[in-house]
Amino acid sequence: MLVAVVPALALQLQAARSERQRLLRDARETAHTRALLVAEQQQRAVDGIHGLLLAISRMAEVRARSPACNASLAPLLEAAPAYANVGAVLPSGQVFCTAFPAARPTNLGDRAFMRRAIETGRFASGGYTVSRLRGVLTMPFGQPVWGDRGELAAVAFASLDLAALQRQLEGLPLPPGVTVAVMDREGVQLAVRPAAQGQAGTPFDPALLARLAARTDPLDLAGPDGVERIYASAPVATSVGELAMRVVVGVPSADIYGHVNEAVRRNLLALGLVSLLALGGAVLAGEHLLVRRIRALIAAAGRIARGDEGARSGLRAGEDELGQLVRAFDGMAESLQALARQREQLEEQLRQGQKMKALGQLAGGVAHDFNNLLTAILACGRFLQERLPPGAPGRDDADAIVAAGERAAALTRQLLALARRQRLAPRFITLADAVRSLEQMLARVLGEEIEVVVEVRAPGPVEADPAQLELLLLNLALNARDAMPGGGRLTLTVDERDGGRSGGPGLPAGPLSALSVRDTGGGIAPEVMEHLFEPFFTTKPPGKGTGLGLATVYGFVTQSGGTIQARSAPGQGTEFVALFPRRAPALAASPAAPAKAASTRGSETVLLVEDDDAVRGIARRALKRAGYQVLDAASPSAALAASRGHPGPIALLVSDVLLPERNGWELSRTLVAERDGLRVLFMSGYAGDRLDGTQLLPPGVPLVPKPFTAEELLARVRAAIDGR
């Protein structure tokens, strides 16, 4: 009897307890949701006032402190009845502009919103007050108005009509017994529902308000009227983060548990009767229905424990509880097998990731040193081209040097791409537009024997580097062309998918944009598929491929937060699917007028810091030829000495990122602190990261990537000095 009844009784009591907790959670969520709803309404009103005051602060009549602005502001009160008044005051507090006609001169210099707006120099809120212009209850806000020379010309103000706020609260569809209080930053009530709970202008219970302000979750306690309620609080802040209002909602808790207690009593009575009947049936059926089947489950569990992941119970899974247990057990065994297969896949991905990490370290080191050499080679080659006119002896050699240097620079960029260390310039684009823009070019590149088909099933918005995306399409298309020597069809498909909350093996989570490139070639053998994205792996004959194309594609996709999959079988073609996190496209900006080419010459003083003698010599030579005064240094200590020993102004610091003693970013912070107005331009061979991948430069700082030409350096220098 105890074995049968006590657990059931405990479950019933636990269920009742859980139900009480659930109802309490629901009541707390309801209170919190309603507090957020009311706070959101007030937040919109505060944000609307801020936007209105910003517009008023830019009015010419207001900035000129002209009373003519009265006529411009008067229609606002008719259009927005929630406002008690709108206008502007002088810094002394004297009102010179008001939408509501002023019967006599009025000074608002002692108002809290006025003092705070002048002290902070930004949008500020006041508190509960009586309007001196209209004589109604209001809550004012202020926004400084700056003159043409940056001086404080006036303070624009707007006041919420608290009567309108009270009517808004009265119109909310709330259940009986729910209380709502909207108060200012000092805890003075602006509007209260129902009115019996308090009135505007009186302070909210300070002790209750202090406890609510110290918590982010609802609070159960007795209110000022002694009624137990669940209280929730929500702040209303200005756009500058200043608390403007606070909303407190109280939900009565008296009737939450009544029906639960009644249900518990009924269930306990029914449980006693059912338990007596169940005991007799359990004695008769226990051996046949339970013990035999449980022993089978125990035996199967033992086989799994000994390593037999394919063990099954062998029992029929009925609809009873034990049948569900049998089904769950067999499902667990199947999951173990699936997990074992997934573990093998993850181990393979880990090995691939370790390879890419090692390659990334190698690529970073190669890029740093190799790009320094390429900078000197390309710059000297172009200097030779400038001195040698076409047809002159040695001009062909100079052209060959520059061409070879550019190919080497492209190879370095490929290494950085496949190692996911390239410097990307992502922006919002759609895969559909990218594919359509390249359709004709791909058709010309692939030839007449290959038909290019574009299927757009969804826009596919992503945030990616358009140039790298074009390179991805070109690489995959050229591989497809090589797989179809006799001609065929190349299908480009843009679609959207859902990766779910956690994605899948190797998949990003959330909504995805998919780009598929499918050919009708001979397919790829299974033993080749395993090495498809490995750097320098190629099935092409010597001289026909470097093995970097697919590795570069893989590096770009993963660096953009996505993944790429390949499906193929001999004789059935190949499909590559690149999956990117789906991003909402940004609004297109209106096209700007083309800017005139800016001069790259100047006469300012530039401090050049580069530890590589050849690169430093090239940069110094280019800067001096353009008219700049150059102070050069091979180390941070030498740069600091040169700066401190130079009596005149220094317009720009041009520094390498990786330097002996300290890095370029740390050097720039020291020099900027010593020289006010000093601008900075960095040079780097691999996006300014350490070899372990940690950033040396914050995002968005001016950077000229190596290798660079003299023209590129001078353009970046001029732009940095001019603040462009």
UniProtKB/TrEMBL annotation:
Keywords: Coiled coil, Kinase, Phosphoprotein, Transferase. Residues 288-341 form the HAMP domain. Residues 605-721 form the Response regulatory domain. The modification 4-aspartylphosphate is found at D656. Signal peptide: none annotated. Its EC number is 2.7.13.3. This is histidine kinase. It catalyses: ATP + protein L-histidine = ADP + protein N-phospho-L-histidine. It comes from Anaeromyxobacter paludicola. Its main location: membrane. One of its GO terms (molecular function) is kinase activity. CDD domains: HAMP (cd06225), HisKA (cd00082), PDC1_DGC_like (cd12914), PDC2_DGC_like (cd12915). Pfam families: HAMP, HATPase_c, HisKA, Response_reg. It is an enzyme of class 2 (transferase). It is found in: Membrane. Residues 329-359 form a coiled coil. Residues 365-584 form the Histidine kinase domain.
